Amino acid sequence: MSRTALLVSTALFAALLTPAASRAAAEDPAPTPVDRFEGEVPFAAQPAEGIFTWGSDADDPPTLRLAERPDAPEGQKVLAGTYAISGWGGFTHDYAAAEPAHDWSAHRGIRFWWEGRSTGKKINFEIKDGGAHGEASELWTTSFTDDFTGWKRIEIPFSDFVYRTDYQPVGGIDQVLGLTAMWGYAVTLPTGESGEFAMDGVELYGGADQTRRASVTTDAAVYPVEEGASAAVRVTLTTTGAAPVDRPVTVAYETGGGTASAGADYTPVSGTVTFPAGTASGAVRTIKVPTVKDRTAEAAETVPLKLTVTGAAPPAETPQIVVDAHGLPYLNAKLPVKQRVKDLLSRMSVAEKAGQATQAERGAITAPADIAGYGLGSLLSGGGSTPTPNTAAGWAKMIDGFQLRAQATRFQIPLIYGVDAVHGHNNLVGATVMPHNIGIGASRDPQLARRTGEVTAAEVRATGVPWDFAPCLCVTRDERWGRSYEAFGEDPALVKSMETVIQGLQGARDGRDLKDGDKVLATAKHFVGDGGTTYGSSTTGSYTIDQGVTEVTRRELEAVHLSPYQDAVDRGVGTVMPSYSSLDLAGDGRGPVKMHARADLINGVLKGRMGFDGFVISDWNAIDQLPGDYATQVRTAVNAGVDMMMVPYSYKEFSAALVAEVKAGRVSERRLDDAVARILTQKFRLGLFERPYADTRGASRIGSAAHRAVARQAAAASQVLLKNDGGVLPLKKSQKVYVAGSNADDIGNQTGGWTITWQGASGAITPGTTILEGIRAAGGTVTYSKDASAPLTGQDVGVVVVGETPYAEGVGDVGNGHDLELSAADRAAVDTVCAAVKCVVLVVSGRPQLVGDRLGAIDALVASWLPGTEGAGVADVLYGRRAFTGQLPVTWPRSEAQLPVNVGDRAYDPQYPYGWGLTTLTKVPQGGTATLKALGIAARAAERAGADTVGRALVTKARLIVQQKTGGRITARVAAPFADAEHLLLTGRYGAAVEKLTEAYRAG
After folding, report:
1. Is 15 exposed, middle or buried (0-12, 13-18, 19+ CB in 10 A)?
2. Residue 209: CB partners within 8 Å, gap ≥ 6?
3. Is 26 exposed, middle or buried (0-12, 13-18, 19+ CB in 10 A)?
4. Is the pLDDT of residue 367 over 80?
5. Helix, strand or coil, per DSSP, at residue 793
6. Alpha helices in 525-642, H assignment, sequence order
7. Are residues 272 and 251 in contact, defined by beta-carbon separation less than 8 angstroms?
8. C-alpha dihedral, 15 to 18 to 19 to 25, nearest 10°
């Protein structure tokens, strides 16, 4: 063929092939540059526009530079860098927060040049969508592999990006990649080795196809319907930016393929609905699927509605119509719970039973159909695992969506959703946050403890959550423990007295109130001995004492740690959670054994001797700490008596392993039946089968004035006045008050850990009243200077609010980045203020702080604990609106070397003894040994008569007399009998308590 003929034929061939491609290219917008790296974008951070680095520690952020390169794909320079990352690290280009976000919706994707080095490592690339700015936006992620050498253009269509489920800086916004409000991109570099990289020419490319800009969704994925009724599936067309569609969108639909039988259970339907070109975003079409009533009792059956979409992105999954289960005995609310459980259990497969014994974290459910697919029995929110928005309505909507999924199972067994509401509904922004348990213990008020439980239950249940992982019945024996503030105190008698909170949460002991819209299932935790672990025995990460080993005799175990659990069982507590810790029981020859493996205590003592009839829920991933392979861990925990396993991100593996263990006979089906029967019993008691969805009628009371009034009273009652020389307290409104200290005006610090997030955080994390705001509202002239740098001239009195910043669990262990000393800034504030004026020092903390070296300069000292959101309650006692009546729930040590130190110890010489607490009552009892003798006689008479209220009042009078005489001169001879008296009071031995106080009086 001649060259001319070849050219002609090639041209003709090209003409036949290229018109459509040429038109498509012509329709595509020109590429939009993002970064050329020629110096047009500086190295800077929010709120300015710029490129900045980040990492998990100081060594992990990469180093960046704009390097001149002769081989630069575009321009003269590239972005180059070096890295050596052990945790995580990378860099970000954020757009300026003061400017509008960018609109990327006209393009198909993003591309850039990357210099490959054939490392074989994955490099994560993220884009930032929506929100207020780049650091408060949603992260959408994908990755590419460095399996090439030299420059290569990486081209990523937006359809490849997926929403990050493991981390979001603000927890998500709408989880829709809208592309109309973009804030830049980020690159996460490989970990585990040193490396270099180079990048160039980031730009947006291509034109957006309609399936990227338009999508078809259904209003639900599951449509439960009574037999004989019709399901209405609403199909909605949605477009990015709400623009009308350019081309028609068609949706072909057809029923079939489920467990229901066509004709017998439903009427088959098929057809097509069309959204013509020009249809506006939000247009709806409805498809109806009729079901057939056959009057036969049966389980639920499914009817998938297959949708085939042309011209738009299809729904993420096929919607299912579910013909409700009906006519079966377990559905009859008039039958006894025991009978309903027996009937349902008899119908379930081993796999369905295993599903009921499985609890997953909400964030792990990336495929919502897994709830039905694995027949999950429960979901939870770990600390800080919240919906977006984090509102009462957001919680209810989220949980209702999960419950709807459970309706697609054969027996439509509802989920039981759990949260750690350990001091109010503390994960919810705007909820009423109570003082932590250590403060409730300081109040010595069982009825107030119950009221705090009632408020918590009402706020939790109003968001659709029926189960609370509280209260903690630990007996804290060493204040180096990061969970100290979760305990009511160091004395099991005090812990038992505060267990009225269980009735506040659950209502009546027999469980009849659990179905009410203001009650939740309670959890006694952590069984058993978690508060008694030996310092230095923990093997969990950098923890020093949390999750360690409790070394005790059988007698010590019974008297100290087991004692509160019998009371909880008697009160009808619905669930019990074992401890992460190990128990080394003297004389049993077993050495340290993890509590999740101690069948002798879970099956033998708790379920056997104590008669616990609720169910046992494991702690977070606790079975992973047991010895052996995964099958052994599952078998060990289940056979030890753990009924439901909290396996946040491994629910698939656990369920499969449990089924395999049962089929192999290593876990008996009888044992599995017992576990599931216990779980189902509580679900029936909660009324979940009849009302699985959130009852939000009480939502208006969340954070209400009435609820905050209870929290305010609890905050006031929790304040313990340790010293009050010269009657500095109560303050007078006529005084000029100088307020200083790190915790005076910080709602996050005064609420502590387990507030909004697991660890809590400093700052304005939730609505409330800081202590400073409470003082200002109480009246008088107030000057505030956090660091005490403002002049003190002319001030009458100083109030310095110091203490800890938030932590939770072993992260807060002493020796794990924490100690019991005040910070340098707090020490300086105390020294400055107390040297200039009469001063009151408030210690806001989860445990005692060492202040002995400054005690001489302090006129009044208050243990404020972690008072919650109502700082006005602290001001109430400072200004005398309420009297100081709180007492130490734990011993206040002189030094860290004294720890552990507890009431009843042979060597007992603390700064302040257990039970200490001065008062600002207008009349403190007068008298000496003669008065104490008379009080003792009366107390013994009250004890014999069972007059507890009278007996406690008499002991209190004796205590105040001793404190008045002793003042701050507390010796070991005073402290030991004084603390013993408080224990005797709590055990109802009023006469002996006064005798001990008389001994302390004489020693003082």
Report:
1. exposed
2. 108
3. exposed
4. yes
5. coil
6. 554-556, 563-570, 599, 630-640
7. yes
8. -150
Asked if the model's pLDDT at residue 17 lies above 60, the reply is no
543-580 pLDDT, tens digit each = 999 999 999 999 999 999 999 999 999 999 999 999 99
User: Reduced to 3 states, what is the DSSP secondary structure of residue 55?
Assistant: strand
The distance of Cα 422 from the centroid of its chain, to the nearest Å, equals 10
Least confident of 291-295, 477-481, 554-558, 672-676: 291-295
| Closest alpha carbon to 854 in 822, 893, 888 | 822
Whole-number Å distance between alpha carbons of 835 and 837:
6
Cα–chain center distance at 960: 41
b/e map 794-831, b = 16+ CB within 10 Å: ebebbbbbbbbbbbbbbbbbbbbebebebbeebeebbe
Please report which helix (H) or strand (E) contains residue 675, including its range.
helix 669-685
Query: How far is residue 660's CA from residue 841's CA, in Å, rounded to a whole number?
Result: 60
Give the residue ranges of DSSP H helices in 909-947: 929-945
The average pLDDT across 754-766 equals 97
DSSP string, 161-202: -EE-SS--SSS-SSS----SSEEEEEEEPP-SSEEEEEEEEE
Structure tokens at 416: 């039981």
Under DSSP, the state recorded for 646 is E
Tell which residue, 886, 874, 949, 954, has the closest CA to residue 921: 886
- pLDDT higher than 50, residue 23: no
pLDDT confidence tier of residue 211, bands split at 50, 70 and 90 = confident
Q: How confident is the model at residue 13 (pLDDT cuts 50, 70, 90)?
A: very low
* Cβ contact 129:138 at 8 Å: yes
Question: Quick one: three-class SS letters along 849-861?
Answer: CECHHHHHHCCEE
pTM for this structure?
0.86
Question: In what helix (H) or strand (E) does residue 112 lie, and over which residues does it extend?
Answer: strand 109-117
Q: Is residue 14's pLDDT more than 50?
A: no
Enzyme catalytic residues: 619, 809
Position 27 scores a pLDDT of 65
CA distance 884 to 848: 18
**Angle, nearest 10°, between helix axes 337-347 and 669-685?**
130
**Percent residues over pLDDT 70 in the chain:** 97
Average pLDDT of the chain is 95
Contact in structure between 554 and 561 (CB atoms under 8 Å): no
